[in-house]
Design goal:
By secondary structure, the protein is mainly alpha-helical. 91% of the residues lie in helices and 0% in strands. It contains one helix and no strands.
């Protein structure tokens, strides 16, 4: 049970981190 919660938490963190990184990357590309 708790392993599933931890997995979801980590997955959510990684997903958000990648999303933010992609937004920053696209922003930098657009303003180059």
């Amino acid at each position: 049970m708790w392993m599933s919660d931890v997995f979801m938490c980590v997955h959510g963190y990684v997903y958000m981190h990648l999303h933010v990184s992609m937004c920053i990357y696209l922003y930098m590309q657009a303003h180059e």
